[in-house]
Amino acid sequence: MLIDEPTLRIVLTLLFVLDYGVQTYFRRRARLRRRQLPELLRGLCVPEQLFTFLMYCGLATYLVHPAWMTWSQLPLPDTARALGIVPAALGLAGLTWAFRHLGANLAAGLGTGTGHSLVTTGPYRWIRHPLYSAWSVLLLGYSVITASLFVALCGLAALTAVVRRTPIEERALLSRFGGEYRKYAARTGRFVPRPRRSCGTTRVP
Fold it and tell me: Which residues lie closer than 8 Å to 135 by C-beta, 6 or more apart?
C-alpha cells in the first residue's frame, strides 16, 4: 500500500487528537489534588514547557498548512516517514498506561501534595519515569512523520530539559519516601528497565 502526504497528515491528526485527549483527561483528573512543586523544580520546568509548546505549535502548523513548515522539512520519502507511525502509536499507548497507574499522584507535587503515594505498579514496576520514556518515543514518531527539523529539535530540547531535572525529582522523592524509594530505585531503571543481574544496589544522586 502506497502512503502519501495526505494519508500521513490524517494519521498524524488522529495521533495528535488522541495525545491531547489522553493528557488532558488524566491531568484534569489529577488536579483534584493540589500540586506544589519545589521552587527549584518550578524553575527547571520552564525550558521543558517552552520547547514543548514550540514543538506542538510546529506540529499543529504542519497539520493546518504544511507549506508553512517547508523551511524545516527534511528530505525523507513518504514511505520512510510512515515508519514513524509505529513509535508514535507505541509512545501514546505507553503514556496512557503510565497515566492510568499514576492517577492522582500526577499532580501531587513529588510527595509534597496531600495523600501522595509511591507508585510501583504497571510500567512503574520496571521504570521510575515511564511517562518520560513513553513521551520520548512519541516525539520520535512525530519527528519522523513530519520530517521536520524544527519539531525534532524542539522535542529534543524539551527532553534534554526533562533529563536534567530528573535527578532533582528523584532526590525530592527520596526525601519524601526514604528507604522505600531507595529500595525501589535499586530494582528499577530510570528510563529503561534495569537488567536483572544488576538489581543489587543503586545510588540515587
Answer: 91, 95, 159, 162
